[in-house]
Write a structure and sequence with these properties.
The protein is mostly helical. It is built from 24 helices and no strands.
């Protein structure tokens, strides 16, 4: 998406005529290529000037946007940030008295919502203003104390945030992380005096990421529960994502542990937190569907799928709808196998051609295609598709051993000439390897293995047996 279009999505400015409207129409509405847009104006220099003017007007329009898709807390945070800027502008102009009044109101609101940086910066301004006014000693002392307290909070918050970023960078680059644990202990010592939500968010996040790095299931659950309890009991008015994100991160661990009851309780606790139809609401509902597949409760999957379908599509996040298409394709598969009633029409190659999964989910497309071909008894097409399995594996399955073993098991169907006993013999080696390769703790289980491969293999063998 080009820059102008991205900004326009959150700006209420729209040009009324002239070359600005022409540029808006070409670049944003019609999304014409840059070379063609440039050629529509008298010179390249004039185009650059016009583009800069349109960008600035669109940016100014962001301040007047309603941001209907945001939560009430996000709206409040934006309002406080705008008041912060407005009070500074008034103070620095000839309306200092009005600016001070707005600044004091904004400090109080920023404290209420845990916006440490705004409390600190505005308190600095107010400290200076009241320091030179001999009749305002009490207020000078008040804001002097706030500056000292919130400077400490801000330093601790930025330290925690930087440590989280450093750990993520080390993991990404496969660098040494032995120094992280000592740094986490320093953060832990600060928790006795710092209950600010952003500091705590990064403190719990860095601990959780470190536990995930070391595949420590027990620590992940412990940390996420501790974080969720802290945020749910906080007296500060917080974004729902503080609690939601930590409870959500417990779900793949519960699936790995086969703690399906715990996963169901967790989903029930967080499904109501995001607004219905929002991105995070869909993510939670998708996990409900995955839980249904893992626990062999297909009715739960159908319920989640129907609930998602009943909400009018208002998201711009295409990845969500592609995931639901894949869930629907698995439901259609179980429907073909006679294991559930799924009335929706399903055509294999319409699904393959119309679905655009993310990189992780692409393997699901190949698996679903093969399984649907098998259940439709299209053996010749199935044979042609499995002939290229090894080439597909070498290109797409690096670092994905479970997918590799399962695809080879599906190739064994052809090697065993669709005879259940011979297929089992050909697949045994890869089946044993699959059993020994545990599912990894991965938030992308939605895309990597939404239905456990052993369940899909049982479906294959049930189809092949007389």
């Amino acid at each position: 998406m080009n820059l102008l279009k991205a900004i326009s999505l959150h700006s209420n400015y729209r040009p009324l005529g002239g070359d600005l409207l022409k540029l808006f129409q070409l670049s944003i509405v019609e999304e014409v290529g840059q070379a063609e847009v440039v050629s529509a104006f008298k010179s390249q220099g004039y185009y650059r000037h016009l583009k800069a003017d349109l960008k600035n007007r669109l940016l100014d329009g962001i301040f007047l946007s309603s941001f209907k898709e945001l939560t009430a807390i996000q709206h409040t945070h934006f309002k406080i940030q705008k008041r912060n800027l407005e009070s500074k502008m008034l103070i620095q102009s000839d309306q200092r008295i009005a600016g001070v009044t707005i600044a004091e109101e904004t400090v109080a609101n920023a404290e209420k919502y845990g916006l440490v940086e705004i409390v600190y910066t505005l308190s600095r301004d107010l400290e200076i203003i009241y320091a030179v006014n001999k009749n305002e000693t009490r207020k000078y002392q008040k804001y002097k104390r706030k500056v000292a307290i919130y400077l400490k909070y801000l330093r601790q918050e930025t330290t925690a945030q930087s440590l989280f970023a450093e750990l993520a960078h080390c993991i990404q680059r496969k660098k040494d992380t032995s120094h992280i644990l000592a740094a986490i202990e320093v953060l832990r010592s600060w928790t006795f005096e710092n209950s600010q939500y952003k500091f705590r968010f990064y403190y719990y996040s860095v601990r959780n990421l470190y536990a995930r790095l070391h595949n420590d299931h027990a620590q992940i659950i412990k940390i996420c529960k501790e974080a969720a309890a802290f945020f749910s009991q906080s007296t500060t008015i917080l974004p729902y994502t503080t609690e939601w994100s930590f409870r959500f991160q417990m779900l793949p661990v519960y699936l790995t542990q086969k703690a399906y009851g715990d996963a169901a309780v967790c989903i029930k606790k967080i499904l109501h937190l995001p607004s219905k139809g929002s991105y995070n609401w869909h993510l939670t509902l998708l996990y409900k569907a995955v839980l249904g597949f893992y626990s062999n409760r297909r009715g739960v999957v159908i319920q989640a799928y129907n609930e998602a379908e009943s909400i009018k599509k208002k998201l711009s996040a295409e990845v969500i709808y592609e995931r639901w298409k894949i869930v629907g394709a698995y439901l259609a598969l179980f429907g073909k196998a006679g294991q559930l009633h799924f009335p929706a029409e399903f055509r294999t190659y319409r699904f393959v051609n119309d679905t655009k999964p993310n990189g992780t989910a692409k393997i699901n497309m190949r698996i679903l295609e093969l399984l649907h071909l098998l259940l439709d008894d299209k053996r010749k097409v199935y044979m042609n598709r499995v002939e290229t399995i090894e080439q597909y594996i070498s290109t797409n399955c690096k670092g994905k051993p479970r997918a590799k073993y399962f695809l080879r098991m599906l190739r064994a169907v052809e090697d065993g000439d669709y005879n259940a006993l011979r297929v089992e013999a050909h697949a045994k080696k890869h089946q044993d390897l699959l059993k020994r390769t545990a599912s990894t703790i991965n938030i992308n289980v939605l895309d990597s293995e939404p239905v456990p491969y052993p369940i899909l293999w049982d479906l294959v063998m049930d189809h092949l047996r007389p």
